[in-house]
């Protein structure tokens, strides 16, 4: 005698395994067994591998843009920090009462940046003009100012190099990701039309891949925009300091010309 079975039966779930004639359909059983696994969480690698070739190219491009953006960000963080530190150090030396000729001799021996480079370039032009022809004092002021303007332009060009890439990524990456999303959604709709199945297990993978492209676009754009704005502000502050020092040194040169005249 068989033992009595106690419990409930999910008749709706069991009935889906049988066709109209009451026979079990093996394909439905296999699909039901696999569906909970395939409908589980998607890893980033799985989303990339299962995406269409167009979406994969978009994801790859956005990933490379994000990596290159972070490389530029770390480089510029160090560059602007060094520029601020070197400028502060030079200003302490310049206003410490040390002889300008002695300061020029010490600084011209090595590589200088920002404010120190501006001072060395101006002093070099001053010495070259004074030692070459003392009677031509009238044009020294203009030549020194021109040299300082050129030096400021070169220093700011060096600091601002590759910032345009951050601006480009920040402005275009979201739209590139959105294009990948639209393409992925169209692919999902095509899959629905081919399979004639509107269940979530058919739609979800394509939608997830499409949204992942948008997420990559935002991941690339947000840091690029934030740090581009920061570096632009840092660049403007350093440029203002350089032009202020240029005016101060031009006044010193003007006084020296008046003394020699």
Task: Please provide a written account of the structure.
With 261 residues, the protein is mainly α. It has one domain. It contains 9 helices and no strands. The chain has helices spanning 11-15, 26-38, 44-50, 53-94, 100-107, 114-132, 140-160, 163-195, 200-260. The chain is rod-shaped. Mean pLDDT is 81; it is low at 1-5 and 7-40.
Helices and strands, with pairings:
Elements: H1 11-15, H2 26-38, H3 44-50, H4 53-94, H5 100-107, H6 114-132, H7 140-160, H8 163-195, H9 200-260
Helix pairs in contact: 3-9, 4-8, 4-9, 5-6, 6-7, 6-9, 7-9, 8-9
List keywords for this structure.
261 residues; mainly alpha; 9 helices; 80% helix; 0% strand; rod-shaped; disordered N terminus
Q: In a nutshell, what does this entry contain?
A:
The chain contains nine helices and no strands. By secondary structure, it is mainly α. It has one domain (43-260).
Secondary-structure-based class equals mainly alpha
Mean pLDDT: 81
How many separate domains?
A: 1
Q: How far do the termini sit from each other?
A: 128 Å
Low-confidence stretches: 1-5, 7-40
Tell me, briefly, the overall form.
rod-shaped
Helix content: over 70%
Query: Radius of gyration in whole Å, from Cα?
Result: 34 Å
Beta-strand content estimate: under 5%
N-to-C order of helices and strands: HHHHHHHHH
What is the number of helices? 9
* Main pleated-sheet profile: none
For the secondary structure, the number of strands is 0
